[in-house]
TrEMBL record:
It comes from the Bacteria. SUPFAM superfamilies: YjbQ-like (SSF111038). This is Secondary thiamine-phosphate synthase enzyme. Belongs to the UPF0047 family. It comes from Chlorobium ferrooxidans DSM 13031. InterPro entries: UPF0047_YjbQ-like, YjbQ-like_sf. Pfam families: YjbQ.
C-alpha cells in the first residue's frame, strides 16, 4: 500500500459558494500513478466543507439559496458576540452541522468510481476567503 498526499488551494469570492474540485482531485490521482484504492478529501476548515453532488448550474444556485435560508447570517447567535477572528460567522459553523468535512471515494484502474452525475465540491460558507485548503490523501496499490 502506498500513500500520496496533495493539497489543493483555492480562493473563494462569495459568502456562500460551491466550487467544483473534481478535476483537481482527478489530477492528483493521476499523478499518483496508483491503480486502485481510496481517495480521501478533507477540508481543513470549520466553515468550508466537502460534498458530492450533481453539477448543474440551476441546482447549484438552488443549493446556495437553500443554505442561506436554512441558517440566516443575521440571526441572533452568541458566537457573534465575541468571534475568534472578528468574523460574524456563527451561521457558517451552524450550517456545518449538516455537512461533512471529508469524503472518501474508491478508485480502480486509476479512475475515481463516482456516479455519472457526481462531482466533488468544496462548499464555502464563510467567504470570501483568500485561501482555502483541501487535503487529498490517496491510498492504494
Amino acid at each position: 500500500m502506498q500513500f500520496t498526499t496533495v493539497t489543493i488551494k483555492t480562493r473563494t469570492v462569495k459568502p456562500v459558494e460551491i466550487i467544483d474540485i473534481s478535476a483537481e482531485v482527478a489530477a492528483a490521482l493521476s499523478a499518483s500513478k496508483l491503480d486502485s484504492g481510496q481517495v480521501t478529501i478533507i477540508s481543513r476548515h470549520t466553515t468550508a466543507f466537502i460534498n458530492i453532488n450533481e453539477k448543474e448550474e440551476q441546482l447549484l444556485e438552488d443549493m446556495e439559496t437553500f443554505l442561506k435560508r436554512l441558517v440566516p447570517k443575521d440571526g441572533n447567535y452568541l458566537h457573534n458576540l465575541n468571534p475568534v477572528d472578528g468574523r460574524d460567522n456563527a451561521h457558517s459553523h451552524l450550517l456545518g452541522l449538516f455537512m461533512n468535512s471529508s469524503e472518501t471515494i474508491p478508485f480502480a484502474k486509476g479512475k475515481m468510481l463516482l456516479g455519472e452525475w457526481q462531482s466533488i465540491f468544496l462548499v464555502e460558507l464563510d467567504g470570501p476567503r483568500q485561501e482555502r485548503s483541501v487535503l487529498v490523501q490517496i491510498a492504494g496499490i
